[in-house]
Amino acid sequence: MARKTESYLVDDFDGSKPANTIPFSYRGAEYEIDLSETNAREFDKDMARYIDAGRRVRNGRGMRRSEERHQKLQAARAWLREQGYDIGKQGRIPKAWLEEFEKFEKAQGQRDDTAQTTGTDG
Length: 122
Prior knowledge:
- The chain has 2 domains: 8-56, Wheat Germ Agglutinin (Isolectin 2), domain 1 (2-Layer Sandwich); 65-117.
- Helix content is 48%, strand content 11%.
- It has helices spanning 37-53, 65-82, 95-117, and strands spanning 20-26, 29-35.
- It is flat and about 50 Å long.
- The N and C termini lie far apart (82 Å).
- This is Lsr2 family protein.
């Protein structure tokens, strides 16, 4: 006997299906909500007045988050290769490896801060 298990998204409000995941942010926090087509249209309608009155912003360097994340992952891949990790040009990077890179970045940032504050006036 064969057994088949299916997984699908359901609307977070009414449990209907199919649903699509809609990302949004509010007061600096990122959210996702799964909504049916009907509820997604209602969400879009409700948000439209705020979006129309507001302005689109980018982070301080003028880069979208996805671009910034892409650059960070590319830097992580390069650093991991330098450290001897066998990592491809694409695909998921193991969490433990990313944590190692983040530790390196943090230590590097602290060293840069220390170098700037301990400089001499020549």
